[in-house]
Amino acid sequence: MRASFILASLFAAAKVLSHPGADHAAEAAERAEYFKQHQVKRDLSHCAGKLDARGHTKRAIVRRQELYRSLQLAHGLENRAPSDINKSHHSDQDYDLHTPPELLFGTNNSCILSPEVILGPYYVAGEFVRKDITDDQRGVPLYLDTQVIDINTCDPVARTYIEIWHANATGVYSGVVAEGNGVESDQANLNRTYLRGIQPTDPDGISTFKSIWPGHYAGRTTHIHVIAHINATMLPNGTIMNTVASHVGQMYFDQSLIYEVEKYSPYTDNTQSLTLNAEDDILAQGAETSDPLMTWVYLGKEAKDGILAWLNFGIDTTIVSNLSAASFYYKDGGVTNPNPEPIVPPS
């Protein structure tokens, strides 16, 4: 019988009515202690050989290269090699027009992530299963490509649901009415769903999203939340109402790229202070044993043309985390959760 561990995300230090940049130390410490106690593998380095042998790495290289080309065509950009790419955060090589695709799209630094960190205070249960999560939001186009690997078997996790959410260009989350999240009196925000969505993984554990570059807010560096739902079921209204997960993580970007995007409108309208990667305690926790920064490439010559970012991350399918939702999105709209604290199971 498969072992199943229950981990309740402690929410006491990050209540729904707190600022999104609030102190999450208690929840972060509880999660870190749990994974220490259960000796959970924190990266995918042990899976590299098996992924290569079964052709998963090669297929990922080809698929991401084809995705890059198709996005260039969709945006009316020149069909060119991606020369304007940053130096990878795990590489000192300069990429140019002659960089082979197997290097650009197949580097191991995009295959060793398994960060388990806090859920954060603005999770909304009941989001739509959809690839395009932009709604009416303006910003630099961002295309996300993720692959999920079982850290115990080193096999891709197929037919599971990956959920992501992040703030808009001015640092505001949809679906939640709370102090510090935009205009607190704006009750209509409960019914907004921008920059939130869920996608099923294919047989290779792949899911993709179309979004915009996330904005920052006080106390946190630029990031995207990601969770994995095992054995979830889509409802007739096209949403998934599931408050358990086998992965709770966050994805990040190079500081140089953050600076670049922040130069453009509407990001320049963001009045909240910018927290750097080096100042973010939650990023530091995830980076202790893994690499939570996404690999990326410009679709054109500069960031404003659009960005393709990709990341592989591992999950332990024997772990189940209880999630505490700030609100729920039903077919008739959003409803604030009156009891956001999760029920802690008996020891």
Automatic annotation (TrEMBL):
Residues 120-223 form the Intradiol ring-cleavage dioxygenases domain. Gene3D superfamilies: Aromatic compound dioxygenase. Keywords: Signal. It holds the Pfam family Dioxygenase_C. Residues 1-18 form the signal peptide. The keyword Signal applies. This is Intradiol ring-cleavage dioxygenases domain-containing protein. It comes from Bionectria ochroleuca (Gliocladium roseum). The lineage of its organism: Eukaryota, Fungi, Dikarya, Ascomycota, Pezizomycotina.
